[in-house]
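WARN  no MSA supplied for this record, continuing single-sequence
INFO  ligand: manganese (II) ion
INFO  echoing inputs
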Amino acid sequence: MNIDSDKIAKLRELLSAPAQRIVIVTHTNPDGDAIGSSLAWKRVLESQGHTVTCLVPNRYPSFLEWMEGIGEVGIFKEDKEGVLAARVREAQIVFCLDFNQISRLENLSDVLMENTAAPRVLIDHHLNPPLEEYALAFSHPESCSTAFLVYKIIESYAGIDLIDTAMGEGLYVGMMTDTGNFSFSNLTPELYRSVAVLLEKGIDIPRINVSVYNSYSEGRVRLLGYSIYQKMGVIQHGTVAYIALKESELRRFDFQLGDSEGFVNYPLSIKSIRMSAMFLQTRKFIRVSLRSRGDVDVNLFARRYFNGGGHKNAAGGKSFTTVEQTVEYYKKCVAEFFAGEKKE
Ligand SMILES: [Mn+2]
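INFO  complex generated
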C-alpha cells in the first residue's frame, strides 16, 4: 500500500504550526478500529506538541474500556455542558478517521460543519469518500483497517521509531477487530510485517485477545445463544441467513450497546451461507448489518436496498419500518438480488 508522498508533505505543512488544537472524530457506534486508530493517531499528534481531543458521537463498547487513554475520549451524546462542542468550534484541524460521511454523525455533524475554518483531513478505508469535503484525504479502501492505514502514515510521516507500546496496542486492536482476528480479506504480507513491528514495540497479543474477545457479560453470551438457536432464519436454498432482534428481546438479556457486535458473522460459519444480515431494533430505527463471503457484494446490496453502504464483504444500512416488515422486505430483496445468478 503506497502512501502518496505529496500528501505526506501536505500533512507536514498542516501540522507545522506549533501547538495546534486538534480534534479527531470517528463514526457512530465506534468499533475497535475507530477507537484504536483514533487513540494511536492522538498519541502521534501529541508527540509533536499538539493538543488533541478524540471525539465519538456515542459510547464505545465496553470491551474497549481497558485501552490506554480511552477515559479521555469525549462522548458527544453525553456532552451536557457543551464542553466538547466548544472543542470542535475552536479546533484548528479536524481529523476524520474510519468513516467519510460527516452527515452521519448524529448531533456532531452540525457542529463540525459550522467550523469552516479548520481544514479537515480524512484517514479512512471506506468506499466513495466525498473528497470535496476534505482539505486532504488519505482514502485507501484496499486497507484492511484504518489502523493499518494510520500505521503506514506514521511510517512515512515520522518513522516507526515513534511508535510506543500504547500506540501499538491501538493499532493492533484496529487491525485485529476489522479483520475478524486476521481472517477476512486484505491480509497482505505488509500487514503482517507491521504486526511484527508492533510486537517489537511490546504489545501483548494474548492479553489484547482476552481483553477484547473474552470480556463479555453473561447477558451478551446468552443473547448470542438465543439469537442463533431461536432467531436465525435461513433462506435462498440455505445460502442466505438473517437474525432479527426486537427491543423487547434485547431488554430480556440486559442489552448494552455493542453487545450484538459480531453476531452477524456467526451464520457465515455455516458452510453453505454466503450472506448474512442482522437487524437490530433501536429506539429510532432498525440497524442493518450485512456480511458476505467471496463475490457476494453487500456494499451493493446495502446501497440498493437499505440506503447504506460499506465494503464488499461488510456493509450496513437502516430500516424505518417494523422488524417484521424489514425481514419480509429483506427476503424479497434477497430473491431479487440473487435472481440473476445461474443455478449451480
Ligand atoms: Mn474500519
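The chain is about 40% helix and 15% strand.
INFO  checksum written, moving to next record
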